[in-house]
């Protein structure tokens, strides 16, 4: 549709639409935050148990999440449905490489094993009143900035 | 009434939580063709917060196009308040006997709450060291590796991306190493 086309009965209200659009993402965040807490993926204890292979809980959780995501995403894409805002659904392919995934992934994993939090639980635990997570968040921002400043010198 | 409250407060088994986590991927694609990934928000937050003069090129982009994700992160905080404060589980995490023994061996008591009191006591300088080093590595590593558990392990594996398999295997290797070897060393300082 060319810009300027007017459909009778439809008025353009980009500002309202943008705000309404963001509300859906707020609700999705609430949904995911609740699941992270109730599934105990945000529990330091569960992360320790996982990295010591002492319980099935986290493996069942991640495994069933991936299987569900795989099946439902495949079905969604196969159906040829468009997104609610009319876009063709696309999955951006990750850039092919080894170094950044091995080195970056291991660095993240070492951090994850210490305080037992990956980025999602940092936010949800803050909401749950675990204030010291603000220290983790502040240093995570510092680490992100450090990567941004040093990336030209790192193998990717 | 008490039964309902008990239900709302109780944690969920993995086979309830796992599928609900997995559904986030198609839901975000269906709502607005968005790729699920939480750690990108750390980059967006830097792009928002850094003054122009001190901004590496990595943080110079139109972050306004990513407001949906920052809003999602705000939702995570609210979800944490709802499930972790208002309807908090009054019982400790139900660890396996082996898990509880290992945690005790680290000098940590299993009490109600998701993060032990021993690791959140900010009057202890060792706790600052542990939380600071952990956060620094999480921030640096997720951007270097291009994602965290949500972007790689959940989204990337769900969409059959080989790079995400490499990343997921690497963060598990890092986590196993740090939980088994580094954390005991840190805890000796924290105690």
Automatic annotation (TrEMBL), chain B:
<feature type="transmembrane region" description="Helical">
    <location>
        <begin position="12"/>
        <end position="31"/>
    </location>
</feature>
<comment type="similarity">
    <text>Belongs to the TsuA/YedE (TC 9.B.102) family.</text>
</comment>
<feature type="transmembrane region" description="Helical">
    <location>
        <begin position="68"/>
        <end position="88"/>
    </location>
</feature>
<keyword id="KW-1003">Cell membrane</keyword>
<dbReference type="GO" id="GO:0005886">
    <property type="term" value="C:plasma membrane"/>
</dbReference>
<keyword id="KW-0997">Cell inner membrane</keyword>
<dbReference type="Pfam" id="PF04143">
    <property type="entry name" value="Sulf_transp"/>
</dbReference>
<keyword id="KW-0812">Transmembrane</keyword>
<feature type="transmembrane region" description="Helical">
    <location>
        <begin position="165"/>
        <end position="190"/>
    </location>
</feature>
<keyword id="KW-1133">Transmembrane helix</keyword>
<dbReference type="InterPro" id="IPR007272">
    <property type="entry name" value="Sulf_transp_TsuA/YedE"/>
</dbReference>
<feature type="transmembrane region" description="Helical">
    <location>
        <begin position="126"/>
        <end position="144"/>
    </location>
</feature>
<keyword id="KW-0813">Transport</keyword>
<keyword id="KW-0472">Membrane</keyword>
<protein>
    <submittedName>
        <fullName>YeeE/YedE family protein</fullName>
    </submittedName>
</protein>
